[in-house]
UniProtKB/TrEMBL annotation:
Protein name: Shikimate kinase
Necessary cofactors: Mg(2+)
Family according to the record: Belongs to the shikimate kinase family.
Co-factor remark: Binds 1 Mg(2+) ion per subunit.
Entry annotated with the keyword ATP-binding: yes
Encoding gene, per UniProt annotation: aroK
Annotated ATP binding sites: 19-24, 127
Domain of life, source organism: Bacteria
Protein source organism: Salibacterium qingdaonense
Pfam families named among the record's database cross-references: SKI
EC top class named in words: transferase
Role this protein plays: Catalyzes the specific phosphorylation of the 3-hydroxyl group of shikimic acid using ATP as a cosubstrate.
Pathway, per record: Metabolic intermediate biosynthesis; chorismate biosynthesis; chorismate from D-erythrose 4-phosphate and phosphoenolpyruvate: step 5/7
Catalytically driven reaction(s): shikimate + ATP = 3-phosphoshikimate + ADP + H(+)
Example GO molecular function: magnesium ion binding
Length: 196
């Protein structure tokens, strides 16, 4: 039976709707926890030699999702002690949810629809998924994704908080968890015969 990595060694995986602050908070966590930060979209852009909007335009969303899945699975299975920020739609793929929950500590950066709407002018132009969508269609997507994001290790509500405050809250909760469960989460003990 496969031995799961100890809790402290696992990647911290940030999920949430596009524009929720994953990259900014991920960079802050990187400094606070002395871990490397990997933005999976940036990782894919370097790997493919083109921007995410260009991949969508030239190869289509289906191909992008396959590239995204391969990259995320690779990072989750092969890397340790990293901070990973997933693209907003990545967690919609069952294989990505499974590998993130198995090998990582998945943290949802939760924000309200009202707060997200205020950020829309800042993010709309470089998000292929939002192109040609009405506000109603964006709202539908927002709540569809929220259902998917409900599978997580812990959730941080970011409304009314600075990125710094959200990062500090995450660090506090992680350290509490590491103190309580120095090796593995309680529900994993039955899955791994090597756990004491």
């Amino acid at each position: 039976m496969e031995q799961l990595p100890a809790l402290r060694e696992r990647n911290i995986v940030l999920i949430g709707f596009m524009g929720s602050g994953k990259s900014t908070i991920g960079n802050l966590l990187s400094k606070k926890l002395y871990r490397d930060f990997i933005d999976v979209d940036t990782y894919i852009e370097k790997q493919q030699g083109m921007s995410i909007p260009d991949i969508f335009r030239e190869k289509g969303e289906e191909t992008f999702r396959e590239i995204e899945k391969e990259a995320t699975v690779h990072l989750c299975e092969k890397e340790r002690l990293k901070i990973l920020a997933l693209g907003g739609g990545a967690y919609s793929q069952p294989e990505i949810r499974e590998v993130c929950m198995k090998y990582g500590i998945v943290i949802l950066l939760n924000l309200s629809w009202e707060t997200w709407k205020e950020r829309l002018p800042l993010i709309q132009d470089n998000r292929p998924v939002l192109q040609n969508k009405t506000l109603d269609e964006m709202e539908t997507l927002f709540y569809e994704r929220r259902q998917i994001y409900s599978l997580n290790t812990l959730q941080i509500d970011t409304d009314g908080k600075s990125e710094e405050a959200a990062a500090d809250e995450i660090v506090h909760l992680l350290k509490l968890g590491w103190d309580w469960y120095p090796t593995h989460m309680p529900d994993e003990r039955g899955r791994d015969k090597n756990l004491k």
